[in-house]
Each structure stands twice: as structure tokens, then as C-alpha cells.
Design a protein that fits this description.
CATH superfamily: Jelly Rolls
Helix content: 10-25%
Strand order of the largest sheet: 1-2-9-4-7
Oligomer: single chain
Shape: globular
Mean pLDDT: 96
Amino acid sequence: MIRIDKSLLDHVSQQAKESPRGRMNYNFHKEYSDRLQRLLNAIEPYSYIQPHKHEDPDKREVFTVLRGRLLVVEFDNHGEIANHMIVDPKQGSFGAEIPERIYHAISALEPGTIVYEVKDGPYSPIDDKNFASWAPKEGTAETTLYIQEIFQQLGIQAP
């Protein structure tokens, strides 16, 4: 049995806070070759995940919030926001599933946000994500401004 409890969430959350990227994964799958990838994704506000889609190979991705609040955004192929959802278990909103071939990104709206993430495998860093050319690359100075622009477009108070 794999236990997902407060102690584990606290541990992974602390690692995310200490990480320069502001996030940390904790994998439950044994190998990257597993056909089902399962992990905790601890995310702090303003940790930037460049919009991307899973295409060739096509993969679905599910985000279930265990702690905190998460913004899930879908984009069209030109970078316009096509759909969004605030996942907040306290408000009765528990998760979102993103179909294959859809640009998407997630952003923590509270410190200590932890997501249970499931997606089709296998994982290969070479072709797992097709990053959007219209969005800033991770690690660049434009990322914070880009996140703030998304919040503003959606009328979301920045964390």
C-alpha cells in the first residue's frame, strides 16, 4: 500500500518551498516506462510551468488537488485562453482532466498546494511535452509577468 498522508504532503511541500523552481514531484510509478504515471506535484505560487500539450505521443493528464488551490488553464493554438477552472476542494471543485493535444498550464493559487497528477505513460523527457512557442520559456524573466497577465485576464487575485 502506498500511503498518501499529511506527513508525506508536508515533506513534499517543504521540498517545493526549498526548490529554486518552486515545485517538487514525488513519483509513485516505479519506472518512467510505466504506462500510467502517478505523482504528487507540490507547487508554490508563481512556479512557472510553460504551457504545453501532450501530442505524438498523445496523453491525457488529470489534476486532483489534495491541498491548496490550483488554476488550470487551457489555451487554443494561438495562446488565447480557451477554458479555465479553479480547483479548490474547500469549494467542492476537486480536479480537472486535460485531453490529449490541448495546450494547458497550471498555477498554484496558495502556498503549499499539492496536486495528485495522473497521466498516460511512458514518460520520455524528449517527447513528453510540446511547449507552446507563444509562451515564455521556463527560467526567463518574462514568466512572472506572463502569470500575472493570465490572472488579470481571468479576474483572479494574485496570490
